[in-house]
């Protein structure tokens, strides 16, 4: 039996965010960037050749002419890696919305900031 107050994993938070988004912004185009999974050297090389980019965020959300990059982190402790910080910086330079999100409330605030309207707003 699972303990009642275990901290959610990043995977659990990401799933929660996707469910929330589907409910409050059903027309958004949303997809995950599966960068973080373990892979062997050959697969890593193949994916790199195909354009997989270290530090790319967990989710891409596009809605009504706005595109946003979302890095999912655990509520406490999860920090951006050097590659993620570099990606964030590149987004800043290109004036592209990039948010670090730890809960649906965070995601709501981020989407509000960048003008993506949701049913929850
Ligand atoms: Mg993440």
TrEMBL record:
CC cofactor: Mg(2+)
Pfam family, one: VRR_NUC
InterPro entries according to UniProt: tRNA_endonuc-like_dom_sf, VRR_NUC
Residue ranges occupied by any VRR-NUC domain in the UniProt entry: 8-105
Domain of life: Bacteria
Keywords of this entry: Hydrolase, Nuclease
Record's protein name: VRR-NUC domain-containing protein
Naturally occurring in which organism (per UniProt): Aquamicrobium zhengzhouense
Higher taxonomy: Bacteria, Pseudomonadati, Pseudomonadota, Alphaproteobacteria, Hyphomicrobiales
């Amino acid at each position: 039996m699972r303990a009642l107050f275990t901290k959610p994993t990043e995977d659990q938070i990401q799933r929660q965010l996707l469910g929330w988004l589907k409910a409050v912004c059903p027309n958004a185009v949303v997809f995950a960037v599966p960068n973080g999974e373990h892979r062997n050297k050959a697969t890593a090389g193949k994916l790199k050749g195909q354009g997989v980019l270290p530090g790319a965020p967990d989710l891409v959300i596009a809605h009504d002419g706005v595109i946003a990059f979302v890095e999912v982190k655990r509520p406490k402790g999860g920090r951006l890696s050097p590659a993620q910080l570099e990606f964030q910086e590149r987004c800043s330079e290109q004036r592209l919305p990039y948010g670090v999100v730890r809960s649906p409330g965070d995601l709501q605030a981020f989407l509000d900031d960048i003008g993506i309207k949701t049913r929850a707003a």
